[in-house]
Each structure stands twice: as C-alpha cells, then as structure tokens.
Specification:
alpha+beta, 5-stranded antiparallel sheet, two-stranded antiparallel ribbon
Length: about 150
C-alpha cells in the first residue's frame, strides 16, 4: 500500500468523515497556505549514521486533505460548523497518533507522529460550496545500511 493510500484510508476512518461528502488527499506541492507553499511530498528532516554504517533518516510526508463543504455567502452557521469539524478532526488525528492507532510509515512505530494542521478555506465558489485544506504531516524514521560508512 502506498503512503497516499495509507493516509486516505486513515482519514476515511474518521468518525465524522460523513461530513466530508467529498474529499481528496494529495501531496502538498501545489497548496499555498499563509502566503507560502508547503514542502512537497516526502521531505528529509535529518540523517544520522552510527559506526557500523546504519543510517537513521527522519522523514516527513506532507499531504493536503481537500474537503468540500456547503457554505453559502455570509453563512455564519456553516462557518461555525466547519470550524468545529476542523478542530474535532485535528484532535482525532492527534489522539490516533498518540494511541498508536494511526498507520505506520517507517521502521520505528513508537516514534511516529501524525498531525493535522492549518485547516484553511482554500476556495469558496458561488454555488454555496467551499473547499477547505488541512495539512497532514507524518514524521517517521527509516533505517538504511550504508555500503561505505566512511562517506556518511
């Protein structure tokens, strides 16, 4: 199963997923939040090698959850509902990660962390439909064996 398939299945397990009606998850290479672009796809955070050539790489996947919701212009109730959903979703993701109920991406499940961040209104169409984007970050450790530990 690919990383994208894993995170999509995970989000589909959210108890409030029925409010999403339509959602799509993709890597974040085309999502702009707070005036800047998010790092795309897989990002290497750090790399550390031991004397035997075993290399621990801390990686982070950055996904964007695009979800459609009803939102009429000037609709304060719809805005409040969306804000409540975003807060609940972020807390659910955090709880799943802490309880180790989230999917595993790396070699050290006890060190994995999945977070849902930012939740912003990305697009509001004239037809009473809005698209929100939530950044999903998965930080994990992968181990590799270097063929020549002296060059690490």
């Amino acid at each position: 199963m690919t990383a994208l398939e894993k995170i999509t299945a995970f989000v589909g397990g959210y108890p409030g997923a029925d409010i999403l009606r339509e959602f799509q998850i993709d890597y974040t290479d085309q999502i702009f939040i707070n005036g800047g672009a998010l790092p795309p796809g897989l990002v290497e955070i750090s790399r550390k090698a031991d004397l035997m050539g075993r290399v621990a790489v801390v990686n982070q996947y950055n996904f964007g959850l695009h979800c459609a919701a009803e939102k009429a212009p000037g609709d304060g109730a719809g805005r409040a509902l969306s804000a409540a959903w975003l807060t609940d979703f972020r807390e659910w993701v955090q709880n799943q990660s802490v309880q180790r109920l989230a999917p595993v991406f790396g070699d050290v499940p006890s060190q994995e962390q999945i977070t849902a961040q930012n939740g912003v209104l990305y697009d509001a169409g004239d037809g009473g439909r809005a698209v929100y984007v939530v950044q999903l970050c998965v930080q994990f450790v992968k181990y590799f064996q270097a063929t020549d530990p002296w060059f690490i």
